[in-house]
């Protein structure tokens, strides 16, 4: 089989790193895009020769076409794109500024659109039967206080996933979304650090009774990346221990 090439944004830590690790274990050439040079170097050292890193700030929308051109000229056509990079902000609704809101949307939505568009162009040009995997959140499934911008951005991602799947699937490109529940990551730890009641509430409404691990998302992403999911497109897959249906 021809080796697959994947891009994982925000792949130097947390869920993104777990996805990259899972891909590398399955001999998928994995290109991690991130902003933190030190974290990228550590990921490269941990994952080895199948991992390649690029330091780039995806909020620089104008440079994304050139970024994708560089990747494809170096590594060939891209088979899998995982749009994982994202930022959160916990703030009371009335204190969220216009600038706060736009900053979250730029990182979590606009950059996902721009990068996906450019990667899809290369997939179509190379007749690649590709897979795009967007990362959403349970914040799009139900109302969470103090994360208005993040919630809006993830709801947008799920809408984009369905629209992209409808348009691109007839051309051989599947588009799906993973909606992680409460996963043990630095971002989650920061969100819960000053709010133990919020953390306990999250665990209590999760039927499995515990928070997930980044590897749980990695395995789900691998399933959606490979031909084992060849008849799956346009879905939003909760990987949440049942949190979205918990009481």
Automatic annotation (TrEMBL):
User: What residues does the Ketoreductase domain cover?
Assistant: 4-181
Superkingdom of this entry's organism? Bacteria
Q: Give the UniProt keywords, A-Z.
A: Oxidoreductase
State the CDD domains in the record: SDR_c
Tell me the leader sequence span: none
Q: Which InterPro entries match?
A: KR_dom (IPR057326), NAD(P)-bd_dom_sf (IPR036291), Sc_DH/Rdtase_CS (IPR020904), SDR_fam (IPR002347)
* UniProt-listed NCBIfam families: PRK07231.1, PRK12826.1-2
UniProt similarity note: Belongs to the short-chain dehydrogenases/reductases (SDR) family.
- PANTHER family associated with the record: 3-OXOACYL-[ACYL-CARRIER-PROTEIN] REDUCTASE, SHORT-CHAIN DEHYDROGENASES/REDUCTASES FAMILY MEMBER
Report what the protein is called.
SDR family oxidoreductase
Its source organism is Panacibacter microcysteis
The taxonomy runs:
Bacteria, Pseudomonadati, Bacteroidota, Chitinophagia, Chitinophagales
């Amino acid at each position: 089989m021809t080796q697959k090439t994947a891009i994982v944004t925000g792949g130097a830590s947390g869920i993104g790193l777990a996805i990259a690790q899972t891909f590398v274990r399955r001999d998928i050439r994995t290109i991690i895009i991130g902003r933190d040079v030190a974290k990228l170097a550590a990921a490269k050292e941990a994952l080895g020769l199948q991992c390649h890193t690029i330091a780039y700030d995806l909020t620089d929308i104008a440079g994304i076409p050139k970024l994708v051109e560089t990747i494809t000229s170096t590594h060939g056509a891209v088979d899998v794109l995982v749009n994982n990079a994202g930022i959160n902000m916990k703030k009371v609704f009335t204190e969220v500024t216009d600038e706060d809101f736009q900053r979250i949307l730029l990182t979590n939505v606009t950059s996902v659109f721009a990068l996906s568009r450019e990667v899809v162009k290369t997939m179509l040009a190379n007749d690649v039967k590709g897979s795009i995997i967007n990362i959403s959140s349970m914040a799009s499934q139900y109302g969470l206080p103090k994360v208005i911008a993040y919630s809006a951005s993830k709801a947008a991602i799920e809408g984009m996933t369905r629209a992209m799947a409808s348009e691109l699937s007839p051309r051989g490109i599947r588009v799906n979304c993973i909606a992680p529940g409460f996963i043990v990551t630095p971002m989650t730890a920061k969100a819960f650090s000053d709010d133990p009641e919020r953390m306990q509430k999250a665990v209590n409404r999760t039927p499995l009774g515990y928070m997930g691990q980044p590897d749980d998302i990695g395995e789900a992403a691998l399933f959606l990346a490979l031909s084992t999911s060849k008849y799956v497109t346009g879905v939003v897959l909760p990987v949440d221990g049942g949190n979205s249906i918990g009481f």
